[in-house]
Amino acid sequence: MVRRGVESTVDCTSYGNPRPVVDWYSRSNLEVPYGSSFIWQEVYFQSAYNTTNRLHLNVTQAQQGGTYECRIRINSAGPKQIHQVNIKVAPYIELGKSEVIAKMSQMYQVDCVAHGFPTPSAVWKRNGTNINHTSSIHIYTSLINATIHSQTVRLYLAIHNVVDSGVYVCEANNGDSTIAQRSLLVKVQANISLSEKAKASQLSDNFEIKCESFGFPTPTTIWLRYGNPVSSLSANHIYQLTTTNGEYTSTSLLNINLKSQGDAGDYVCQASNFKTFSTEATFSLKLGLSFLYSTLPSPFSQSQTVTCAFGGFPPPSVQWSINGQTIESSTKTPTTITNRRTQNKIESTLKVSSSIIFGPNSIVKCWVVDSSAERKSPKLVINGGELNTFANQGK
């Protein structure tokens, strides 16, 4: 048995008078060349009555195994003696890949090609147990190709449970004690599960959101706010507590005591178990709409500016009307509306530059609308430069 890349030698010695001639021939009935190559021969020893020819075998592929002949003759016309030697090539393996970074439930295929002579048999194993074509509907193998010098066995792999990650081994042998092995490392991209994806809240509410991630290697799980990690100090009104639960799972608990408008919004849970890959899931903390403040012109003039500010998340849309007519910002009308958003607040300013549509007794309204329904809003009344404010529904 010879190994690929490791030189082996076989001597053929013959005695006679006159001294015999010895030559090595390959399995293709071609004389093995003299001199240095992967497979070559040399006259290793000669005396008056004997000759030893040495066959050098530095096998690079399984096809170089097989039957070699040592042919002995006294002269070119004399009888020949032929002695055969069967050169076996120890199995060696080529894997389609050495690592798989898997997504849950997605099918992957990895070929194990076992080379050698005689033909080796190949098998995939997991934790010392053979995998065959009936092992599982998610993880199984199939014989793809077989020749006199090789056998190809394909591993089909669809991870449905993170415990199926880890090391898979392809093993090959061809009847000798020499066994070849190659390993495939199967990793699983981090996956995330949130206890809640969105929550409606009011100021002073307290709650906890659980983010659990699993994968292999075990992911690192962290909550982010505006791209920065949430504090881990429990003295803060918003903080996270991270733990590792066994070999595959980690958890981060987001604790929120809602104290201000700015605390509402999106919080991102990020799980990563590779340098170049991470998974994210967003928790949206919604805050009910509220009126914050308004500013009105005083005293009355032809050019007027009115401002309304509202809070809430998602940020609402502000609407305006004058004397029951909805106002839109346009180059065709003497009105301009400017909206400025800062975190969970929107400040909307209406500028009117015409006394035709706006006078000292005009009624100006601003209100907000979110994606679900129109909300309550104040009606702002300008009367001779004096401001009266009272609650109102709709427009």
Describe the structure.
The chain contains no helices and 31 strands. It is mainly beta. The chain folds into four domains: 8-87, Sandwich (Immunoglobulin-like); 91-188, Immunoglobulin-like (Sandwich); 195-288, Immunoglobulin-like (Sandwich); 296-392, Sandwich (Immunoglobulin-like), CATH 2.60.40.
Which fold does the CATH topology of the largest domain refer to? Immunoglobulin-like
- The CATH class designation of the largest domain is Mainly Beta
**Total count of helical runs of at least 4 residues:** 0
> Measured on Cα atoms, how large is the radius of gyration?
41 Å
Provide mean pLDDT, rounded: 86
* Fraction of helical residues: under 10%
CATH superfamily of the largest domain: Immunoglobulins
In total, the number of strands is 31
Instruction: Tell me the number of structural domains.
Output: 4
* SS-based class: mainly beta
Oligomer: single chain
Largest sheet: 8 strands, mixed
Basic shape: rod-shaped
CATH architecture of the largest domain: Sandwich
| Alpha-carbon distance between the two ends | 93 Å
Unreliable parts: 373-395
* Strand composition percent: over 45%
